[in-house]
Amino acid sequence: MAEAPTPPTIERSDVHTVDDERFSRxxxxxxxxxxxxxxxxxxxxxxxxxxxxxxxxxxxxxLDGTAARxxxxxxxxxxxxxxxxxxxxxxxxxxxxxAAGRGKLRFLANVAGLQHVDxxxxxxxxxxxxxxxxxxxxxxxxxxxxxxxxxxxxxxxGNMASVHGHYVTSDKVxxxxxxxxxxxxxxxxxxxxxxxxxxxxVSTGYVKTPLVTGQIPDTAAQRGISEREVVEDVMLGQSRxxxxxxxxxxxxxxxxxxxxxxxxxxxxxxxxxxxxxxxxE
Length: 281
Prior knowledge:
Radius of gyration: 18 Å
Order of helices and strands: EHEHEHEHEHEHHHE
Number of domains: 1
CATH topology: Rossmann fold
Number of strands: 7
Largest sheet: 7 strands, parallel
CATH superfamily: NAD(P)-binding Rossmann-like Domain
Strand order of the largest sheet: 3-2-1-4-5-6-7
């Protein structure tokens, strides 16, 4: 029986490094959702690889934890934290201005996410709107505001998508719609980047993050099954892999996409789902 997963601590040995001349403190990587989970992992991987990271979230305490972990890892780069609400344009304007003031704004990682579990006929629209605001509108707005800087720097946008941007599961309509939308945004940026700005998305199955572990009880209650069955049958049931990814695994994928190794990755999606969407028994 699979044990209920817990978000792991990122160690220096977990972080992949790429020898890329752009990975230096003069270049800035703006990361949303950086207080925990995948956002924290992307921020730490970027900092260990020498970038100046501007990490943002609504959770100021969580951001402090990200910055402290970067220091513990002796990151070659730095992590500067900015508490911001991605539902407020003015706060995003200030966020981009701060990032641009720290060096050459070259990388944008849209990672922030929300979740809610309910069938469509019971889904609270205020929660639906919040999820779309944070997971579709905010990435679009940040891309809009960052594009002039990215064009000048020859930059790149990485967007956190999901297997749910390829196929869907029940009771997650807002999340499903958002992840299909973020893939559309990724391709739109590529179409308009004129070769100066690249974009890519990352689609994974279930990852050991607070967002995922926090939805296990709701999913169990919604489906009338045990929490262990949620992990084994719902989250891993269709996967050929028997374990969830760690957040740092996803952070490393963002690093590859941002690096010279991703030079021909433009508008594409890095699908690392353990075979969940493309295989069957």
